[in-house]
Amino acid sequence: MKTLISIFFTAVFVVLLAYFMPGVRVNSFFTAIIVALVLGLLNIFIKPILVLFTLPVTIFTLGLFLLVINAIIVLLCAQLVDGFEIADFWRALLFSLVLSFCQSLVASLSEK
Questions:
Q1: Are 26 and 35 in contact (CB under 8 A)?
Q2: Where does the pLDDT of residue 110 fall: very low under 50, low under 70, confident under 90, or very high at 90 and above?
Q3: Residue 21, Cβ density class (10 Å: 0-12 exposed, 13-18 middle, ≥19 buried)
Q4: Which is the most buried residue in 16, 68, 71, 93, by most CB within 10 A?
Q5: What is the CA radius of gyration of the chain?
Q6: Separation CA 72–CA 95 (nearest Å)
Q7: What is the DSSP string of 42-108?
Q8: How many angstroms separate the CA atoms of 110 and 98, rounded?
Q9: Spatial contact of 87 and 61, defined as CB atoms under 8 Å apart
Q10: φ, ψ at 63 (rounded to 5°)
Q11: Rounded to the nearest 5°, which phi and psi values hold at 87?
Q12: For the whole prediction, is pTM greater than 0.85?
């Protein structure tokens, strides 16, 4: 049940970010749910591989390269999901930062 709630809130945040951020477009709430699912799957399966391959760069940048990996995951999701578009890398980076912040805020509020 907790996973379904997390997917729902992620979809809501995707819709809100697409509304407020120029260069980010999502067609419908159903598309946002698909985006939330694909982002979750990419974070489970692809992100650890990217982190492993870029470990020296991540250590050298004191972990800041993980933000680039998050942006790459968002761009990959935009390529995989029809109806979800991100204009460029910098918007993907900002989108991933704000989405991560919103997700962590909801997670911290749900633990109390």
A1: yes
A2: confident
A3: middle
A4: 71
A5: 14
A6: 11
A7: HHHHTHHHHHHHTHHHHHHTTTTHHHHHHHHHHHHHHHHSTTEEE-SHHHHHHHHHHHHHHHHHHHH
A8: 18
A9: no
A10: 90, -5
A11: -65, -50
A12: yes
AA identity, residue 100: S
Q: Which two tokens stand for residue 94?
A: 């900002």
112 pLDDT more than 80: no
Strands (E), the chain: 24-26, 84-86
Q: How far apart are CA 78 and CA 26, in angstroms?
A: 10
Contact 12, 31 (CB under 8 A): no
Q: Report pLDDT digits (tens) over 50-105.
A: 999 999 999 999 999 999 999 999 999 999 999 999 999 999 999 999 999 999 99
Asked if 95 and 53 touch (Cβ cutoff 8 Å), the reply is no
Question: Which residues contact residue 90 at a Cβ distance below 8 angstroms, ignoring those fewer than 6 apart?
Answer: none
Name the helix (H) or strand (E) containing 33. Answer: helix 29-45
Q: Which token pair is 35?
A: 């985006």
Q: What percent of the chain has pLDDT over 70?
A: 99
